[in-house]
Amino acid sequence: MQRRKFLKNATVWMTMPIFSACFRQTEFEVQPIMDTVTVTPLNKPHKEWRALLTPEAYQVLFKEDTEASGSSALNDETRDGVYLCAACYLPLFESKFKYSSGTGWPSFTQPIAGHIATKRDYKLIMPRTEYHCARCGGHQGHVFSDGPPPLGQRWCNNGLALKFVPQGESTPELRG
User: Fold this and answer.
1) For residue 104, is it within any domain?
2) Domain count within the chain
3) Which of the chain's ends, N or C, has fewer CB atoms near its CB within 10 Å?
């Protein structure tokens, strides 16, 4: 039994470079869309964010959880306005870049330049590009290469991580 387990593990370890080379070829790199805007990052303890947010929003924003598909009222939001980070209220997306992706999460073709930070995510084995609010670090979602032209990007966002402000209404002051 030990020998069989050893051989099985050895096979997995020997094939990992092959699989990882395949994944590297399919990685999606986010290209800069516009000139970068400087956003000063906050250094706020998570316990303070927890006090400002619902438990569900905190899990999504600061524990990198994902809400259930189709659960956000923002999926059906079609008014003009701006989408803010639900934690610090930094504007992240303009409504003119929102579209119906059919995925069950609010989706956008591009963010507001300089307001998003990206990193690689390997939680599902294949690498993905995860993005966060550049100010508070709150997890927003993932960006994929299956969006509409001209950029071909789908910025798939958790609705709990966003706050929508309709055009004409005043945007709340940044928190932090």
Assistant:
1) yes
2) 1
3) N
User: Is 135 contained in some domain?
Assistant: yes
On whether the CB atoms of residues 111 and 154 are closer than 8 A, the answer is no
Residue 140 placed within a domain: yes
More confident residue, 130 or 1: 130
Instruction: Report the share of the chain in percent with pLDDT over 70.
Output: 76
**Residue 81 belongs to domain with CATH number:** 2.170.150.20
The catalytic residue positions are: 156
Residue 79 lies in a domain: yes
Q: CB-based contacts of 52: which residues, under 8 Å, 6+ apart?
A: 87, 175
pLDDT of 15 over the 60 cut: no
Distance CA 24, CA 126 (A): 9
CB-neighbour burial class of residue 57 (10 A; exposed 0-12, middle 13-18, buried 19+): buried
Question: Is there a cis peptide before residue 127, judged by omega within 30 degrees of 0?
Answer: no
pLDDT for res 122:
64
For residue 36, the enclosing domain spans: 32-166
Edge-first strand listing for the sheet containing 98-99:
98-99, 107-108, 154-157, 139-144, 128-133, 116-121
